[in-house]
Structure formats: structure tokens, C-alpha cells
Amino acid sequence: MSEPGFEQTDCIIVGAGPTGLACGIELGKLGIKAILIEKGCVVNSLYHYPTNMVFFTTPELLEIGGIPMTSLNEKPGRTEALKYYRRVADHFHLDIRQYQTVEGISGEDGRFVATTLSQNGTTFHYSAKKVILATGYYDIPNLLNVPGEHLPKVIHYYKEAHPYYGHDVLVVGGKNSAAISALELFWTGARVTLVHRGAEMHKNIKYWIKPNIENRIKSGEITGYLQSSVVEIAEDSVLLQTPEGEKQIKNQFVFAMTGYRPDFEFMRRHGIELDAETQRPKMNKDTLETERKGMFLAGVVVAGIHTNEIFIENGRFHGIQIASEIARQINRS
Description:
single chain; alpha/beta; FAD/NAD(P)-binding domain; 2 domains; seven-stranded mixed sheet; five-stranded parallel sheet; 23% helix
């Protein structure tokens, strides 16, 4: 039953990334009304990917709702993906409320209430029988936790290289994002130093990227400090801990490509119990319903800290699992 001033729906989906969209599509196919609430734009995480990013996967593995995805090349790029997901949202007439942040979800199964805040400060209330959290993991960076990390020159989201032409930049990390950003910055004319705590770059770097970054480091075109870490960040320099001891280098920008994590605190606040070690939520693996009855999880948030286990390729199928269970519960009540 709807309350005065509350917009009523069957299901609230928090997050309008590919997985959230897939959930909305599958619910719609079963006649279940859903409102998707997104604090940014549609597929907000993909929008914030590097401008020239190319997906590691082929187009058909990014498809949702049975809508074919086409690409000029074997692997699609960011712009093609954004266009595709906009087209899918239009095709299924998904009800997406963009630029609204979910402040809290109260109530219980059958009578949830979500309170949101828009960019201009307007508060909205939505009541629903069920809730799906499909919030992804790209919003909270893993911090270096060193002095100076708060400085404006420290960047956790690499977009493109052009603004850093002719500057001394430090890239922190040893996986794909670090390797790709270091190479693009180097090709664009930045003076690049890469620091990584491992003895070598990560073994799972894309096969066409790994030899390239390793050769640039080996030749000295990119200065590499392996088995090293950042100790402190200053306005015009960075202090590193290396196998040869501490070393201070000139620096104007730091790209901390150290990964991201789901908003675990948001889940805890909403009654979802997490494993102390892995941060995996306790839930029914078949239905993806959490111990807070009526609240479901979709996408990478089901994996805890192991964010490399869930991608668009497999997270998109969570919509079918969840939608069938929600339909069963609603039709039974």
C-alpha cells in the first residue's frame, strides 16, 4: 500500500549499470514494475572508464535483454558500449531516475521505503515490495593510506593522457589499469614513473599490453620501481620505499591505480551481514536474496572483496535469477 507523497512500484533497483538494467529488463518481462535509481548517469561506471578504453571481451558477452550489440572491431570500445546500453534502456522503456542518491532504505519485505536526494537537493520517496542492490564497485577507490593522498594532484580515476603532456607523473599499481594508463601517458609525452609492490607486473594483464609495459620499463622509457611503495606525497615530489632504500622523485601528478571496492558500509547499514574476512554478503546463492528478506544483490557486490570474480559477462545473468524469485514471491502473496 502506497503512502501519501510516496511513489509506488513493485521493485526498487539501486544502480543503473549493465546489471541493474538487466534486472529491470527481466522484471519487466514478468510484468513486475521497477524503478531504477542511479546516483550518476546511466551505466555511470562505464562512463567514467578511460575515454579510449577497449573491452577485453567480445560484443555478445556484453549483451543484455537479448538485444544484439555490434562493434566496428572484434572488441567494443567504451563509446560503443555507452551507445548500446542507452539503446537497450530505450527499447525496454526502463524507468530510470538519474542523479538521485539513495540516502536510506527502511521498512521490510513488502513495504520498503527508499529515500533519495537529487543533485539540486530535492528529496524523493519510493515505496516497493522488493529491493535489488546493483551498486557495483567503481565508486570507492582503495586508498594508499599515505600522507599527502588528499592533495588535488592525486587521481584515482584515469580518463585520458592529454592534460599530462610534459609533466612528471607517477602511476601506482601493477594490473591492467596501471599498465594501460602508464603506456598512454608515456605515448602522449608525459615523463612516467611506475611503482608496484610486486616483483613483476601482474600475470593477468591483457596479453597485448603486458610485453609492451615490460619492454618500456626494461628500456628505461618508463622508470619502473618494483617491490616498491609510496611513502609520502608532497606538492612537487613523491617519496618512495624501494629495495635500495627511500628515494624522492620529482612529481606533479599521481595516478593511484590501486583498484576499487563495493560500498560495504552501505550494505551493513541496510541489514546485510558480511563475512569478516572476504566481505561476501550472506545470501541465498540460488536466488541472491540476502538475510534481510525481500532485499536482493546483483552484480559484483555478491563477491565481496573478490571483485575480479564478477564482470558484466556473468553479472548480467543475475537479473534472470532474481526476477524469477521476485515473481514467485509476489505471485504467492
